[in-house]
Amino acid sequence: MLFFGTYDHNLDDKQRLTIPSKMRNKILNSTVYVSKGFEGSLEMRTEEEFEKWSSQILNLSSFNKETRMITREIIANTHEVEIDKIGRIKIPNNLLKLANIEKSVYILGMGDRVEIWDQKSYDNYQNDNSDRMEEIAETIYQGLNK
After folding, report:
1. What SUPFAM superfamilies does UniProt report for this protein, alphabetically?
2. Which of 100, 94, 65 is nearest to 78 (CA)?
3. pLDDT band at residue 144, thresholds of 50, 70 and 90?
4. Which residue spans within the chain are E strands per DSSP?
5. Alpha-carbon gap, residue 101 to 21, rounded angstroms
6. Rg from Cα positions in the chain
7. 106 with 5: CB under 8 angstroms?
């Protein structure tokens, strides 16, 4: 199951987020997991993807300080959320605060997961990094062809 596209949405007054219909149709009647992401985002995964992803983290050595830190930051900031009958999820307050989300969000399909960004934060991220995209793409592409 692949998620793709960028969608502009708003939280309602009860801090619920409507999942875009193209994404929602892929995850109806299932549980999803919302976690602290990277660069100020949140990440949403299906149960199957969350189990794969979290097992990779949890299989790292707990004797390593960085492993403990990333486990604390991500796994401890993950919540199992239900999708209601009309395709909304309630994002817990602590995650909204971590991502500086108040109302307006972008929902980004990222293949195996969905990123949820505060719109201003994502716009700033894009502006700060747009000049580097070609350079990064070249570096990654060269690494794939070795």
Report:
1. AbrB/MazE/MraZ-like
2. 94
3. low
4. 3-10, 16-18, 31-36, 42-46, 78-82, 88-90, 104-111, 114-118
5. 21
6. 16
7. no
Distance CA 139, CA 1 (A): 27
The pTM (predicted TM-score) of the whole model is: 0.90
Task: Please state the separation of Cα 119 from the chain's center in Å.
Answer: 14
68-117 tens-digit pLDDT: 898 888 999 999 999 988 899 999 999 999 999 999 999 999 999 999 99
Structure-token pair, residue 85: 């009958």
Does the domain at residues 3-120 carry the CATH identifier 3.40.1550.20? Answer: yes
* Separation between Cα atoms, residue 83 and residue 87, nearest integer Å: 6
Query: Is-contact 82 99, C-beta < 8 A?
Result: no
Q: Considering the chain, what percentage of its residues have pLDDT values greater than 70?
A: 97
Q: Could you tell me the end-to-end alpha-carbon distance of the chain, in angstroms, rounded to an integer?
A: 28
